[in-house]
Amino acid sequence: MFFQHVYDKSLAQGSYLIGCQAAGIAMVIDPQRDVDVYLEIAKQNNLRITHIAETHIHADFLCGSRELAALTGAELYLSDEGGADWQYQFPHHGLKNGDVIKLGNLTFEVLHTPGHTPESISFLLTDHPATDKPIMVFTGDFVFVGDIGRPDLLEKAAGIEGTKEAGAKDMFQSLKNLLHFQITYRLGQVTVLVLLVERLWVLCLVQPLVTKKFATGHLTMRKMKQVLSINFD
Amino acid sequence: MMKHLNKVDRPLLTSVPQHSKLTKQEFQAAYDNGIKIIDARNKVDFANGFIPGSLNIQGNNSFSTWAGWMLNYQESFILVCNDDQIEGLTRKLMRIGLDNILGYISDVNAYDVKLQKADVITIDEFKSYLDKPDVQIIDVRGASEYEAGHIDCAENVFVGTIQDNLYKISKDKQVVIHCQSGDRSAVAYSVLARNGFDNVKNFSGGMKEWNATGGKTIAGKEASCSFA
Prior knowledge:
Strand content of chain A: 25-35%
Radius of gyration of chain A: 18 Å
CATH class of the largest domain in chain B: Alpha Beta
Largest sheet of chain B: 5 strands, parallel
CATH class of chain A: Alpha Beta
Strand order of the largest sheet of chain A: 1-2-3-4-5-6
Structural class of chain A: alpha/beta
Shape of chain B: globular
Oligomer: heterodimer
CATH architecture of the largest domain in chain B: 3-Layer(aba) Sandwich
CATH architecture of chain A: 4-Layer Sandwich
Number of helices of chain B: 9
CATH superfamily of chain A: Ribonuclease Z/Hydroxyacylglutathione hydrolase-like
Strand order of the largest sheet of chain B: 5-9-8-6-7
Largest sheet of chain A: 6 strands, mixed
Strand content of chain B: 5-15%
């Protein structure tokens, strides 16, 4: 498996190129709009970009998925979750919870993880020749390393009223759902992810408090420690 | 808006546009037509001489953030930057869908335009304006920063939305603006200058210098001031 993280620090925006070297093909998740960076990575590693996916409809940057698709002929894989108001309005392969994208020896299982936005999905990656257990999850703005996504931004920044309470409840349920997955590999980022999941498990014990706090704004792990007075470490 | 653009069919930009340096004639024609100028130089260079009407958004990691607040998707604009900056800035802007760069210039002295200077003041001069009824202090940081601690009497007008809140800024009083460390107040100063405010001073040292020198702050959403 080939994996490369591309990070734009000016927008704090992360994207990923994941390839199956055996099949010589790759998927890009949440590409930035100047897509030459992915073409170059693919070229250097003898990969052909055949799949492009997004975790959600972004509000903080203009996603380069369609530019990349136009240049490579790759297919778009986008969320069809979230209801009528949250549907992409151009051709794509629609993804629902439980769907699986196959990329050579790799599979990406789609998890519907609403909270930050109603249509948010995450991709649970398994590298099949090596194991049948997932090794990474691409969460978009649902969870971050050491933090969770904001359910209040739609209301605050995008001006869509009355969504933060519902978003907070969705977020809590999505976090609980993530706990069903046993992430056993401890390599690079994934080690962090395991820690994160352990921490989230603690959160599930105190739903009302956390839901209330979610609805009031940005809840960082540091704040959670203060709120819950629980020693996470 | 970007959420909308990410959802619907839109024009594609499949390569990074190569922008050219404008000739003197090209610049002059666009300038005479009232085009917006985004000056990406360092705030000190900008303060020492800027093209009237230009906005100072420094070409650092916050460039796209403030450009996103200050520009719309329709208007075209000119950048002031060096040759080695134009590609990077073009990339930063296209990532948020701001594609309408007409071109760029590097030397603000090369045109038949009388440059303006920004009125930047030291902390000592700033202190001399405090507690005066004919002075308006404007803190241009975000609401949560302001709420956590601000200088007594300072009012909060966030730089990102200052263009929509110009009515809150006095045209009669001496206005003194500041932010945390001078970057955002440089943006705000240029917005106010562009909109005809000639009564503004910029305390560039901001809360950073204020706090470092033991200045008092008060918490809370509302400005409180015996002179207000």
